[in-house]
Design brief:
alpha/beta; TIM Barrel; 2 domains; eight-stranded parallel barrel; 17 helices; globular; disordered C terminus
């Protein structure tokens, strides 16, 4: 595969724990995602034969371009895990050097690798030797903290190891998701390396794709939280005028249920799995805020303190309380009649929703 050509102008669905489940990837692909990533898989768990980890390598039959992201800190283990990913249909394999969560970093994984550029180089070198000509890519942050923004050194190490492309999330590990992404830093990496660079961070609306690409010069963009909040961002990226009314959003939710039933099954076990994922997605779908009355759009880092729904159905879609989400699960899985009347709204709905991170 010519990865450089595939990345040119691509809009990519990011690797996201739980959010990157197979049916949601299919939904995002239907809506226009050029490349889809599976959920991050742990190399050591794969080598131990952990069945749930292997599920993260499964490619949908209709997935056009599918990438696997691996997390690990040992070159030999990552190389063998990469071989496993390729045997299961990965078009390319990515190294996670960006996950900021404590559970990962205390084990020397994810963002912890940013403090060891030479280790990154050795991991990439081993993986490239193991699966060539299948490309190996690397996803990084700007550094461990604001005091150690070593992204150019890390990028150089990945290139030295033979990486075919880099994705740069424009924040440090310490910043998590609280600060706006630094797309000027993404541009610095783009100028410093010869391989394609993908920019990542704070994309929620289509005009931001053009603006961030112009600011950084990156070859492609990767969307994470924005794809969870409004998966039709991929349609908008292609220039489509999307109906974001409540009926269209409910139709999108029902389509996800169709795809998820195909994947998880319709028996009791499959329904339990679907219910778990549906509640997860409802926690993001309810965060969508349409264009304001003055024509402006909210950005990823803004919080809408006083959003006024356009009608009762939209008000129900924007509720983030457990009772409302339980009602939507019944509605989507059993039908409107089985769901009954919507639950009464909580008395206090003024608290702003917290933006959750990508995986």
């Amino acid at each position: 595969m010519d990865l450089r050509a595939k990345l040119d102008g691509a809009v990519i669905m990011a690797p996201m724990t739980k959010g990157g489940n197979l049916p949601y990837r299919r939904l995002c692909q239907e809506l226009g995602a050029d490349i889809t990533f599976g959920e991050m898989a742990l190399s050591r768990q794969l080598l131990r034969g952990h069945r749930p980890e292997f599920a993260l390598l499964k490619r949908a039959a209709d997935e056009r371009c599918f990438a696997v992201q691996l997390a690990g800190n040992n070159g030999e283990e990552m190389a063998e895990a990469a071989r496993l990913a390729v045997t299961r249909g990965a078009d390319f394999v990515d190294v996670n050097c960006g996950c900021p969560i404590e559970e990962m970093t205390r084990r020397g994984l994810g963002s912890a690798l940013l403090r060891k550029p030479k280790r990154i180089e050795s991991i990439v070198t081993a993986m490239v030797a193991a699966i060539a000509p299948v490309p190996v890519t690397v996803k990084i942050r700007l550094g461990w903290s604001e005091d150690t923004r070593n992204y150019l050194e890390v990028a150089a190490a990945a290139v030295a190891g033979g990486a075919s492309a880099l994705t740069v999330h424009g924040r440090t590990r310490a910043a998590r998701y609280r600060r706006a992404a630094d797309w000027d830093a993404v541009g610095e990496v783009r100028a410093a390396v010869e391989i394609p660079v993908v920019g990542n961070g704070d994309i929620l609306n289509p005009h931001e794709i053009a603006a961030f690409r112009a600011q950084s010069g990156c070859h492609a963009v990767m969307i994470a939280r924005g794809a969870l909040i409004k998966p039709w961002i991929f349609s908008e990226a292609r220039g489509a005028v999307v109906d974001d009314g409540p009926e269209a959003r409910i139709a999108m939710m029902r389509r996800y249920v169709e795809l998820a039933r195909e994947h998880f099954g319709v028996d009791e076990r499959g329904t339990r799995r679907l219910t778990e994922f549906l509640k997860f997605h409802l926690g993001f779908w309810c965060r969508y805020v349409p264009r304001r009355a003055d024509g402006t759009l909210s950005s990823m880092q803004e919080r809408e303190e006083r959003f006024e729904p356009r009608n009762e159905l939209e008000a129900l879609l924007t509720r983030d309380d457990p009772a409302a989400h339980e009602w939507w699960v019944r509605n989507l899985l059993e039908g409107e009649a089985a769901a009954g009347a919507p639950p009464a709204a909580p008395s206090d709905t003024s608290e702003a929703r917290e933006l959750m991170p990508e995986g």
